[in-house]
Design goal:
Helix content is about 10%, strand content about 30%. The strands form four sheets. It has a five-stranded mixed β-sheet with strand order 12-13-14-1-15. A hairpin with a 5-residue loop joins strand 7 and strand 8. It is globular. The two termini are about 10 Å apart. Bound molecules: zinc ion. Zinc ion binds next to loops. The site of zinc ion has 7 residues, from loops. InterPro entries: Gmx_para_CXXCG.
Length: about 240
């Protein structure tokens, strides 16, 4: 199986589709304030997480940086609602996108590069074609067009890892906040044993990258072109 990273068009004006949206999340794990690293947070999102039954969910409406103890307190509130195998890092976004949309959308919309939405017909085709790892969550986007199809965000769980040989500048673990980040290597490939067998969409741990299978690309392309770049990523 070949795999492809999702990327936005190099020239946004070269696209065929006029659709744009502005949206926020319902809930957040706050970013982390650290005396050494200053403020930081990741871009991971779990749109399928529903915190509407959590009594204290008002305190999760903001992403503003907080001290490590407060981040830990809020992570503990959220943890029971997130599958135990998935990381919950500072800056994690939870729940569906909520906002407004304008214009016409292609089968697949990638904007920014760490968010992927599909049109309702694309969601139906991915599911009826038997693709695996497709977790669609309806984006709550208000639009003036009543005939426009609904958009569904696909949850990209960070299941694969970059191959350690392509990471060249990993920082030592920060003693205050635990951060040990690295720069996204321009030349990168996936660690073979970490690639989830049979899944057609997944995220890459510690990065903002979303990877889809060749089968995913072939399936959505049956609905016509999308304003998306599929950049092959190899597995070693
Ligand atoms: Zn730190």
């Amino acid at each position: 199986m070949r795999y492809f990273e999702l990327a936005v068009l190099g020239d946004p004006n070269s696209g065929q589709w006029s659709g744009t949206y502005r949206a926020k999340r319902k809930w957040y794990v706050p970013s982390q304030l650290c005396p050494r690293c200053e403020a930081w947070g990741g871009m991971q999102a779990y749109p399928s997480v529903d915190l509407s039954s959590l009594p204290d969910n008002d305190s999760l409406a903001e992403i503003w940086p907080q001290a490590p103890e407060e981040v830990a307190r809020r992570v503990a509130l959220v943890r029971p609602f997130v599958p135990p195998a998935l990381p919950l890092e500072p800056g994690c976004r939870l729940g569906p996108l909520v906002g407004t949309a304008h214009g016409h959308f292609g089968p697949v919309t990638v904007w920014p590069s760490w968010q992927v939405l599909v049109r309702e017909d694309a969601r139906d085709l991915l599911q009826s074609s038997g693709l695996q790892g497709i977790i669609p969550v309806r984006a709550e986007l208000r639009t003036r067009r009543t005939k426009e199809q609904a958009l569904y965000e696909l949850e990209a769980r960070p299941l694969a890892k970059l191959h350690p040989a392509c990471i060249y500048d990993r920082e030592p673990t920060c003693p205050f906040c635990g951060r040990h980040g690295f720069t996204l290597p321009p030349k990168r490939w996936l660690l073979g044993e970490s690639v989830p067998t049979g899944l057609d969409l997944f995220g890459v741990e510690e990065t903002t990258r979303i990877v889809v299978s060749e089968r995913f690309v072939d399936t959505v392309n049956r609905l016509g072109p999308s304003d998306v770049v599929y950049r092959e990523i190899t597995v070693e």
